[in-house]
Amino acid sequence: MKTRAIQEAELAGVGPKLLAHSKLAEFTAKRGLVVELFPFIYGASERMSAKAISHFLEMEQGVKLSSVTINKALKDPARNWNLFFDMIEPSARILEKNQGDKMKDFLFREEYLVKPFENRVVNAVVNVLVPDKVAEAVRILRGKWYVIDWETRRKALPFVEHRLGRK
Q1: Could you give the C-alpha distances from 22 to 26, 48, 76, 144, 154, in angstroms and in order?
Q2: Is the pTM above the cut of 0.90?
Q3: Which residues lie closer than 8 Å to 163 by C-beta, 6 or more apart?
Q4: Which residues contact 37 (CB under 8 A, 6 or more apart)?
């Protein structure tokens, strides 16, 4: 396709058309996706290339994340671990305040909050006794932090350690 000189009058319509098209097109901006998946990308990168990770995500999971984006994230692990930690830190602070344990003690323990209770009676009692904000914090940590394998979580420690002592 050959680029042509665009007159100023024609340019006025280009922007609105682009914006209108973007609202009809498939959503492709995945800005937060690399941060959400970063711990898993980081762990997988020890055995897989960024291209292989990108291919797996697209073919096996239907998630489009370019190898360039993955490489960019892996080249700055401190930034990406901290962005990921931004998502879980509020929940960790709630749990720290409620439990009395330091974040470093419970976030970097191999097994902690591993499974919810399976007994409905016990769940009902827990739901009554545990404040909603604590239950929500536990749910977030289970779903975002404790699903990360132990070795990868341990490797995150140097990247977020400066935040763990802050109150």
Answers
A1: 8, 33, 30, 31, 41
A2: no
A3: 82, 85, 89
A4: 57, 63, 65
For the chain, helix, strand, coil in percent to 5 are 70, 0, 30
Structurally, how many domains does the chain consist of?
2
Q: Does residue 81 lie within any of the structural domains?
A: no
Specify the DSSP element, H or E, that contains 36.
Answer: helix 33-44
Count of alpha carbons within 13 angstroms of residue 153, beta-carbon side: 20
Residues 62, 96, single domain; the answer is no
Domain annotation covers residue 133: yes
- Report pLDDT digits (tens) over 51-104: 999 999 999 988 889 999 999 999 999 999 999 999 999 999 988 888 778 888
Domain coverage including residue 93: 87-167
Two structure tokens written together for 123: 């769940």
Give the single-character DSSP code of 32: T
